[in-house]
Prior knowledge:
2 copies of one chain form a homodimer.
Chain A: E1 4-5, H1 6-13, H2 17-26, E2 33-35, E3 38-41, H3 44-58, H4 62-66, H5 79-108, H6 118-128
Antiparallel strand pairs in A: 1-3, 2-3
Chain A binds a DNA duplex through helix 2.
Amino acid sequence: MTHLDIADVARRTGVPVSTLRFYEEKGLIASTGRHGLRRQFAPGVVEQLGLIALGRAAGFSLDEIRGMFAPDGRPEIDREMLTAKADELDATIHRLAALRDSLRHAAACPAPRHTECTTFRSLVRAAASGAVPPPDRKPPQRNASPAHPS
Amino acid sequence: MTHLDIADVARRTGVPVSTLRFYEEKGLIASTGRHGLRRQFAPGVVEQLGLIALGRAAGFSLDEIRGMFAPDGRPEIDREMLTAKADELDATIHRLAALRDSLRHAAACPAPRHTECTTFRSLVRAAASGAVPPPDRKPPQRNASPAHPS
DNA sequence: GTGTTACCTCAAGTCGACTTGAGGTCAAGC
DNA sequence: GCTTGACCTCAAGTCGACTTGAGGTAACAC
């Protein structure tokens, strides 16, 4: 079987069919053709979707990810881009670690009210000054275990 | 001056007036009254906004943050909640660190194509299996330096 | 030949946190 | 008293990544 039905792809990757259509429309993946109405996909799309998931996890937008594939679907990833993103992650990690420590302190702080704790107050001031940007929405928590992870 | 105009609050905190109105509508902050049409705020709202910024930075939603204030505006933060959030941050940090390491590896990997690198392949597989959820949108990068940070 | 059903398209809706815009009001300065 | 302009309200728009829904089609089993 050299061609995969959209449902096969969904089953193998855990990515919903609606998302697969959406990705195709966006140019992130491509179907090899149709069988009647139905999209056919090359088996390689499975790995490609893995790469897309990875990119998303690393914080790349779908538009950025699209730029990581050659027209034929092969990945062509700029190494500088990866390094830049790694650096970015690093910065995020540091900020989050500081924040985590502060939260733990606040949780353990003996002051009757947080407003009376010096550490907490300076933390609040730091946040107010924009040192720690908000991380936005929660991840949608998608299907974490495809039916056949191979 | 015991009352602050909305513009004063904006100037002191760096939070746009539109956001202040939005927060009031959401019940996160409260005005003490009106001077004509104009909202008046107690000075304490400045610290409260700092706390809101902190909460956002820690990944709390506005709804969660609303629950952190007593009706009078004083913070009443559940310590367990803080600990839970700290744990959550910890988990995030670990995932991001692993991801960062992998990105660095991929950037430095000598294989001509990433698909030929074992480390990279296993990374892709992990991402595909949902081990590393996407972090969603970029932070909006707000005004990081209020006019009078005191 | 007919049904079933999994697929199709296209438009619209969702989520959270805000921003933007049109049209209105009123305190303060002249 | 009149202008000015900062403030007001309320509705709608934005952003990214998808999902949902209505209405249609065709491959396959019988």
